[in-house]
Each structure stands twice: as structure tokens, then as C-alpha cells.
Amino acid sequence: MSSLGRNDGAPRHDHTALAPCRSGLFSSRLKALVDGELTGLSTWLLRRHVARCSACREEMQWMNRLHGDMKELERATPRPQLRARILASLPDPLPTTPGPQAVVWRTVPGQLQPAVATWLRKPRYALGAAFFALTACMVFAAPLLRGHRRAGETYGKATGLQAAVQAPVRNQTARVAPDRSVVLPGSTGSTGSIQVDQSSRGGRSPDVSSWNVVPPVGGAATTPSSVPDRGSPQPSAQGMGSEPSVGLALATNDVAKATRVVEARLHRLGGSVLRRIPAVEPAAESAAGSVDGRAPGRSPASPIDWRRPSEGVVLLCSAKLTRTRSLERTLRRLGALNRFDPSLRDAAPNIPTIQPLASPDAGVAPAAAPDPSKPALREGPDRSPALPAPETVTVALWVHRPASVKTTPPGPGSELPH
Amino acid sequence: MAKGDDCLLAQRILQGDRKAFEELLDTFETRVYRLALRFTGDVLDAEDLTQEIFLAVHASISRFRGDAALGTWIYRVAMNRCLEFRRKRRLETVSYEEGLPVDIEFSQEDPVHAVERRQLAEKVEAAISRLSPAHRDVVVLHELQGLTYQEVATVLNVPVGTVKSRLFNAFRRLRELLGGYIYEGTAT
Fold it and tell me: Measured between CB atoms, does B132 come within 8 Å of chain A?
């Protein structure tokens, strides 16, 4: 690439205004000649032409150098973790070729399988076999269905974010405690809390460098005391059940727009916003709105003015996980939403803690502090936590405008893309 | 890699030889990753896409008949995935990764020279990104990935003549876009 230089002084030569080659037949093949893709007579004819035509000669030189320089552009190398990820995601055991197996199957002595196939070709036997299969399915499926009902009953006593999702819609308001923890409403018996660590500010995902999931404690832990203390060892995250709950905080100066961005991103992640819960801080609680951003005293059509200080909303979202998109990567994607408003990256508040509320009148529970003994969840297969791998994850996103940030109209750099 | 070696490697992967798949990764991981990075412009997305590509390669290795080189076949799988990614992204109303610069590392050298090179690299990158998708795909596969015309034609499922004309037109367009930058010594 050293052959290139910036034309910051007087232009030495305008290469875009070359005298065109009068023989367009040859010039269109110059690139192929540079790449050595011409053979025989074509090469000879074109070389002969280039020896006489200065325009083609110069163009060929230009192509030659750009061809060489562009090769230097490709320097990106994958991170070492990628290889481990790919190998870890391979199905185990590896599939074997189906062809030889089929041959072996046909040569098994006794001809049992072909005999069955011939038998099944007769309609009455086929009908009987179908009836038998249906009966067998019903017999075997009954315990599974009973199990499903049991699972449904368990789900009715859901914990964490699931409970918040299932809670009655009316009068559902998340509260922001003075310590900047967010308290989510939940049904009776719900426990658990989510902590989001914003320790990492660099890179492309500043808000999800690590997080801890605090599983529910006991069965009827409805009091604030049930929340683990800072020093107490926290139970395994596997206790959360099949659907872990995690929380993220997004700082923005336009909550409504950020909400739309979240919805668009979730759509890409195969998820959706399950519920929108207005989040209010104690100072603004008297003017708090109920669910869907409607203030109690106002007409149902008038939404909360999200541009007020200390405003925010908790979005309970579902995101689909796949084999290649883990929980962590999903959260990284959602956390990367903070990129749209770079002026607010440094203005994000302290680590928020999202807790389900034990009961509507239980007040604000003390925030669960992060457990220093628990390893942070970071990227890499070697640091994967003991979280289960569900297909869908529920994520609480606290989209808020920090009160400390001045209300400034978003500039062109902070405008959300549409 | 010779054709016989390709078939042998594919056969070993089919038989469940994990080492064989690691050999395949050794050869193609970086190239596929770079291709994915070209299409995504984001490291995380590129890693996801690379993983999906290799999983697809692994799942469909039984369909490799040995007509083309294994590399060409892998590129075809990769391009299909990359084009699918681009199509999905086009449907998105909100995009976040657009305009993210591709990280380019430069070795230890004279700082002034390094800055010049970086500026030029960014300029060339910007010019490539402004090409039409058809032209850009050909440039990426031939110029950046080093595939021959025939291989590019196989990967994109177009005639070789189309590859030639697209490449020529792409370079014409690049010349227009890079008008502010000239080659030292080229001017007479």
C-alpha cells in the first residue's frame, strides 16, 4: 500500500479523466489480463494493444497496484475463542454417513424389516398399525400431559420476572429506590433479584460485561429479609428453573425512542416486549402512571411525558436463544443498544438492581448487593455459568433517562437510526 | 488442497473424525471469518455467522460430491449464509452496526507512514462499501479472498464472463470513488 499517497497538494494527475481508449474491446479485458485470467491469443492481442495504448497501460498499472494494495486490507483474525465455540457446538457424536448403514440394514439375515414393509403395504394391516400407533401415543402421552399440567401449575407460582409478567396488569408500576434499585411488582411468593454490573465502559457492550442471577430463596420468601445479603453465599443459578431472569439498564435521553429501538432489536432476536411497566422514582411517584404509561388521574389517552426527569420504563422482554446465540450474546446485543446515544454512556447511573415486589403493598425491598464470591459471567466457554440453556429468556430492560443528565435535544450524532 | 485430499477430508468428517474437522477449521476459519466480517461489519455478528457457516458445513458435508474444490464448496455455503444475513438486515428498519469501521491492524512501522496507510485503507474500505452489492461481492471474493474467476463464478452461481465484467466495472467505479487518492509514480 505504500505506493499510494494522498493528493493533498496540487494534483499531479487526474486519473478519473483519462483519455479513453478508443478500442473499448480491449479495455474491458484489462482486469482479466492483470489477474492472469486470459489465455492464448487473447493475452497476446491485449499485450500488444497495451504496448501501444498509453491509456490502457496507465489503467492497467492502476489496477495492478490497487489489486496489490487491497490484499493488505484483509488482516482481521478471529479470536481464539471462536474456534472453541465452533467445536463445542458440533453435534456429538458426529453423524455417520447414511449410505453404508442402509446397505447393512438390507443385508441383515432374516429379512425382518422388509417383511414388515411388505405387510404394511396391505391396507387393513396398515390401518390396524395406525390405530395401534395412535393408541400407543395416547397411552404414552398421558403421563407427559399430566406432567405438563403440573408444570403449568408451577408456572402459576412463577418467580422472578416470570411473576412480574404474570402479575395483574392494572396498577403495575416499578419503583426506583433511592439506591437506584428498581423494584418490580410480582405475585405473592415471588423472589429473586437481578444485578447488572456496569463495570466495563469500553468496547461495544459497556453495560453487560457481567451479571449475576440471584435465584429464588426458599418457597415462601416474600419478605425483604429473604433477599440474600451481601456476604451470604447465593444459591446456584440453576435454582431459577428453566427460565433465568436477567436485567439490563439502558440510559437514554429519549425513553420512547429507545423503547422502539428495543422492540426492533428484540424482533431481530426472535423476541418481543411482553409488558411495559412505568418506572418511577420516589420523588415522582405521586404523579406516577399505571401500566402502559397512563397516569391514574389523567384521561386514558394521555400518556406519561417520558421526557420528564427521572422517567423510565421497565420492559419485560422475551428473547429467543439458539444454539449459536447464547444468553450472554443476546444480552450483549441488547446492551449494545447504548451505542445509539454515545453522549450518555458515561452518564449511566450506578448498578441497578431489579427485584420483584413481594406484594403490592410491601414497599420497597432493600436491594440485593452483588456477591463478590460469585464469579462474574463473562464471555468464553470456560467461564460459562451453571445457567440452564433455555430456548427463551425473559429479560428486564430498565430504559431510563438519568435525572443527572441535562435535558438537551438529541443532536444529529445521537439521533436514533430508523 | 488437491481434490483427492478434499474428498478424503470430507469423508473423514463424515465418519465422525473430529480431528478432520479441526483441520478444516485450520484451513478455512480465518478466511470464512473475514468474509463474514465483510458482510456484518461487526465482530460479534461475524463470529455468530462464522459459527453458523461451519455448523452448516458440518451438517451438509455429505452433499459435497467433489466436483469442485472443498474450499469453493465451503465458500458457496458461506456466501449463501452471508447473503441471507444481508437480506435479513435489509428488512430491518433499525440497524445498529451500520458504519462500524472494520478493525485493521498495522504492524510496527513509522507512525507517519502508518497514519497514511490507515487513512488510505479507510478510503479504500469506504470505496468498496459504496460499490453495488453485485460488484462488491465479486471484489471481496476475488481481490480480498483470493478466489479465481472460476471459483467466484461457482460460488456466486454466475458465468465466468459475468465475473469478468463485474470486476472490470467495479474497478472502474473504484477509480471514480478513489479520485482524491493517486498512486505515486503512476502519474507521468
Answer: no
Nearest CA in chain A to B26: A83
Which residues 47-76 of chain A have a CB within 8 Å of chain B? 58-59, 61-63, 65-67, 69-76
Contacts of A302 (CB under 8 A, 6+ apart): A294, A295
Cβ of B72 under 8 Å from any chain A Cβ? no
Amino acid at A200: S
Q: What is the Cβ-side half-sphere exposure of residue A391, based on CA atoms within 13 angstroms?
A: 1
Write out chain B's pLDDT in tens, 188 residues: 666 778 888 888 888 888 899 999 999 999 999 999 888 888 888 888 899 899 999 988 888 888 888 889 999 999 998 988 888 776 654 433 333 344 444 445 567 777 777 777 788 888 888 899 899 999 989 888 888 898 999 889 899 889 988 988 898 888 888 875 655 544 43
Angle between helices A112-120 and A123-156 (to 10 degrees): 100
How many whole angstroms separate alpha carbon A382 and alpha carbon A385? 9
Residues in chain A with CB shorter than 8 Å from the CB of B171 are 31, 63, 66
CA separation, residue A192 to residues A155, A237, A326, A367 (Å): 15, 10, 22, 11
Q: What is the complex's ipTM, to 2 decimals? A: 0.80
